[in-house]
C-alpha cells in the first residue's frame, strides 16, 4: 500500500485544485457545432475549427437531430461556455453564426471560401504540427480592425473575447505555440481566417552551426573538414522556405524552447500555416440569441424614420405579448379561485350531510327508547329505521 498523504499535502492539493478551477473558469469556452445537414466537408471543417479552439472547447460534442438551440444554451451555463460557433448549409451558401452567451449578440457570417487542415498540410513541403501545440490556447492577432464602423468594432470585440486574454508581464513564451490571424479587408469587407504553427530559431549563425544545435547531427560524408560545415554550410537546406529579415527577427525577453534561443539574443519567429483557413463576410448582427433587433445588415440600409418605425412595431409587439401574458395569468387565477370555491362548497355540503345524518340517527335512537319505556317491549324491526 502507498504512503498516505499528510495534512499539509492534502491542503496543498486542495488549494491547487481550487486555483486551477478558478483559472479554468475565468477563461472563455466554446461550443462548435452544426444545425441541420451540412455534409462531409463542412462536418470536417467543424472538427478542424474545434481543433483551433482547443483546449477550451468541447472536443467531442455530440449533436442530435432533435436538439434545438435552447438545449445547447441550457447546458452551456453549468459548463461555463461563453461562445457558440454554429455552422449551417443552404443550397446556395455556407453560414457561420457566432454568438455570445447568454444574451447575445449574434453575428451572422457567410463562409465564402474554406480549406481544411488536410488540404493546407498537403500543400506544404514539411509541416509542423504536434499534440503539444494544442495544450495551450493560440495567440490571437487582429489586423485592420481599427477602421471606422460600429460593426467592425463589435466584430473585433467578439473575436477578442473568444480567446483568453494574455498578461504580457507574466506570460510564458513557451506556452505560445500557435497563433490565429484575422485580417479584415475594408474594401471587400471580407475577413481572412488563418491558423499558424509558431517556431523560434536563433539567427546570426550559419546554417551549419544551426544543424549542430539541432538534435540530429548533419551528414558529414561530403566534407573533408568540419570547418567547411561551419563556414560554408554547403548543400544544407532548411525545412522552412521563409527568409529571415527585420519583419520576423526579435530579441527574446525569456529563454525559449529550442537550442540557441537564449534571453536577450536575437531569434527569428517563423510561422507555418496548419489550417484550417476561411474567408468570412459579415451578413448581419442581431440582438439576443438570434431573436432580437437587427443592429447591422450588410445589404439592407434603413433611414432613421424606418428604424424608429421598426422599434415602435417591436415595442407594440412586446406590449401586446405582455398584455396576453397578464390576461392569461388572470384567467389562471380566476380558474384557480373557482376551483377553490367549488372545493370549499363541496366540503361544506359533505359536512352538512354528515351532520344531518348524525342528527337523524340521534332522533331515531330517542324514539326507540321512548317506545321501549312507554310500551315495555322492543319495537318491530323497520318501525324506526
CATH homologous superfamily caption of the largest domain: Brix domain
The largest sheet is: 11 strands, mixed
Morphology: elongated
Count of discrete structural domains: 2
Helix and strand composition category: alpha+beta
Distance between the termini: 86 Å
| Low-pLDDT regions | 233-241
Q: Class of the largest domain, according to the CATH hierarchy?
A: Alpha Beta
CATH architecture title of the largest domain? 3-Layer(aba) Sandwich
**Mean of residue pLDDT?**
80
Count of strand segments? 11
Helicity level, as a percent range?
A: 25-40%
Order of helices and strands: HEHHEEEHEHEEHHEEEEH
CATH fold-type name of the largest domain: Rossmann fold
**Rg, Cα atoms, Å:** 38 Å
Number of helices: 8
Give the DSSP E fraction (strand runs of 2 or more residues).
15-25%
Strand and helix layout:
Elements: H1 7-26, E1 30-34, H2 39-53, H3 69-79, E2 83-89, E3 94-100, E4 106-115, H4 117-122, E5 139-143, H5 150-162, E6 178-185, E7 190-202, H6 207-213, H7 226-231, E8 249-251, E9 266-273, E10 277-286, E11 294-297, H8 304-375
Parallel strand pairs: 1-2, 5-6
Antiparallel strand pairs: 2-3, 3-4, 4-10, 6-7, 7-9, 7-10, 8-9, 10-11
Region (Disordered): 321-385
Pfam families: Brix
Domain Brix: 28-291
Amino acid at each position: 500500500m502507498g504512503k498516505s498523504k499528510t495534512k499539509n499535502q492534502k491542503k496543498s492539493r486542495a488549494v491547487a485544485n481550487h486555483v486551477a478551477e478558478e483559472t479554468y473558469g475565468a477563461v472563455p469556452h466554446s461550443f462548435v457545432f452544426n444545425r441541420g445537414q451540412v455534409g462531409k466537408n463542412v462536418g470536417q471543417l467543424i472538427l478542424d475549427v474545434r481543433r483551433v479552439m482547443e483546449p477550451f472547447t468541447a472536443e467531442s460534442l455530440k449533436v442530435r437531430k432533435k436538439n434545438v438551440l435552447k438545449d445547447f444554451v441550457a447546458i452551456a451555463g453549468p459548463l461555463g461556455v461563453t461562445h457558440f460557433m454554429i455552422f449551417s448549409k443552404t443550397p446556395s451558401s455556407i453560414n457561420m453564426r457566432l454568438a455570445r452567451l447568454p444574451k447575445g449578440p449574434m453575428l451572422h457570417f457567410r463562409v465564402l471560401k474554406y480549406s481544411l487542415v488536410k488540404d493546407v498540410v498537403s500543400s506544404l513541403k514539411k509541416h509542423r504540427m504536434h499534440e503539444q501545440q494544442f495544450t495551450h490556447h493560440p495567440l490571437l492577432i487582429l489586423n485592420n480592425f481599427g477602421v471606422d464602423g460600429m460593426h467592425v468594432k463589435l466584430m473585433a470585440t467578439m473575436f477578442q473575447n473568444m480567446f483568453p486574454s494574455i498578461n504580457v508581464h507574466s506570460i510564458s513564451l513557451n506556452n505560445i505555440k500557435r497563433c490565429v490571424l484575422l485580417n479584415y479587408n475594408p474594401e471587400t469587407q471580407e475577413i481572412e481566417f488563418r491558423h499558424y504553427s509558431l517556431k523560434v530559431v536563433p539567427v546570426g549563425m550559419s546554417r551549419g552551426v544551426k544543424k549542430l544545435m539541432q538534435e540530429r547531427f548533419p551528414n558529414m560524408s561530403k566534407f573533408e573538414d568540419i570547418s567547411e560545415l561551419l563556414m560554408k554550410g554547403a548543400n544544407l537546406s532548411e525545412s522552412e522556405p521563409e527568409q529571415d529579415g527585420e519583419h520576423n527577427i526579435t530579441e527574446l525577453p525569456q529563454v525559449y524552447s529550442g537550442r540557441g534561443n537564449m534571453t536577450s539574443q536575437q531569434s527569428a519567429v517563423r510561422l507555418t500555416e496548419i489550417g484550417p483557413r476561411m474567408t468570412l463576410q459579415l451578413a448581419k448582427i442581431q440582438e439576443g440569441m438570434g431573436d432580437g433587433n437587427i443592429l447591422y445588415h450588410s445589404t439592407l440600409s434603413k433611414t432613421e424614420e424606418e428604424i424608429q418605425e421598426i422599434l415602435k412595431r417591436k415595442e407594440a409587439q412586446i406590449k401586446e405579448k405582455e398584455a396576453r401574458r397578464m390576461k392569461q395569468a388572470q384567467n389562471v387565477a380566476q380558474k384557480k379561485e373557482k376551483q377553490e370555491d367549488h372545493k370549499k362548497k363541496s366540503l361544506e355540503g359533505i359536512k352538512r350531510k354528515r351532520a344531518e345524518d348524525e342528527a337523524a340517527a340521534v332522533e331515531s335512537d330517542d324514539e326507540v327508547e321512548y317506545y321501549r319505556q312507554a310500551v315495555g317491549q322492543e319495537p318491530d324491526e323497520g318501525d324506526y329505521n
